[in-house]
Amino acid sequence: MNYQDEILDRIFMITERVIVFDGLDDIFSHIVKTSVALTKADAVTIRVFNIETGFLEIAYSIGVSENFIQQSPISVGEGIIGHTVLENKSFSTRDATQEISCKNIDVAKAEGIKAMMCVPMNSRESTLGCITVYRKTNQEFADHDLMLLSIFSAEAVEAVEKAKLITELKKQATIDPLTSLFNKRSIIEKLQAEIDRSKRHKQSTAILFIDIDNFKKYNDGHGHLMGDKLLHDFTALLHRHCRTEDILGRFGGDEFIIIAPQSSISGALSLAKKLCKEVQQYNFISSNINQPFNTTCSIGIALYPEHSDDYESLMDKADKALFISKRSGRNKATVWQETAKP
User: In this structure, are 167 and 188 located in the same domain?
Assistant: First the structure.
């Protein structure tokens, strides 16, 4: 195969799309393998920016040792790779160990790395990270290697973004975007599953229906943005005082539900009273900077199997118990009783 045919063959490799990827790991695996084939490199790493830590971290690699993978993360703007990402500009060298800007020269030497080429992974709005290819010889990467890897990087970013979008869409199908709790449909499915599990193991399960008192008044007075903030902070309170095994969901608006597995009436009531107390004492942010907003919550409780062995009936009774709490003055928890009249 002559030089021109080889380049055309490698361009075809770039444009040949893989229709189905099984998540990001599968995409990253495809990226490193294709990068090796395109540039005839000995090793490849993909570094991506971790928004939680603020560092560029190795997400996937091929051809490098575990010691190389475990090297410390890189800040944006730090070393060759950090500058590549910060400046959004590719970099190539015959010998990385002779570059003053190389952050981990000792690690590179121990790995036997010489020639190195780093290409940013750009999305339309930002840089995701970078692809870095290595050779363990001084044979420098050619201009056409840089061109091919740059073209492929754009294709790779598109695949990564599509995978992230699919993941996010799947998440949105089950998770409430504002609070990150299970949404109404999902929490009902969780309740069904928990009732089935409780039946098999002959255990009790409590559900708590929770409503934020005077939320509409707050939302109207302080605006929807502050209303969203209150819901977000209220969710944090629930997480802080619930058990790890408790399952939390947003039923809609300012209504929440807690599924408390293996909980007795006294245990569920104790949790509910604690939540009422904590909410009452909490200073929520308001549109008046120097004046926090204080509110309360009302709770209704129903228990499997004492009150019902059917999830729909159980939800209905917890909802009616909540209504009794609201009607009788708010800021309280009510356990369903068959003689109760909402």
Answer: no
Residue 309 lies in a domain: yes
Q: Are 16 and 80 members of one domain?
A: yes
Domain with 153, as residue range(s), is 3-172
Same domain? For 12 and 152 the reply is yes
> Where do the DSSP E strands lie in the chain?
43-50, 55-62, 74-75, 91-93, 116-122, 127-134, 205-212, 247-252, 255-261, 297-304, 333-335
142 and 12 within one domain? yes
Q: How many domains are there within the chain?
A: 2
Gap between the terminal Cα atoms of the chain: 84
Rounded CA gap, 239 and 226, in Å?
20
- Helix H segments across the chain? 3-15, 24-39, 66-69, 79-87, 105-111, 143-172, 184-201, 215-222, 224-241, 265-281, 311-327
pTM over 0.70: no
CB 117 within 8 A of CB 149: yes
CATH of the domain at 83: 3.30.450.40
| Total number of residues shown for the chain | 342
Per-residue pLDDT of the chain (342 residues; tens, 9 = 90+): 555 555 555 555 544 544 455 678 888 988 899 899 889 999 999 999 987 788 899 999 999 999 999 998 898 889 999 999 988 899 999 999 999 999 889 999 999 999 999 999 987 767 789 999 999 998 999 999 999 899 888 888 888 888 877 777 776 788 888 899 999 999 999 999 999 999 999 999 999 999 999 999 888 888 887 888 899 999 999 999 999 999 999 998 999 999 999 999 999 999 999 999 999 999 998 777 678 889 999 999 999 999 998 999 999 999 999 999 999 999 999 999 866 555
Q: What are phi and psi of 202, to 5 degrees?
A: 55, 55
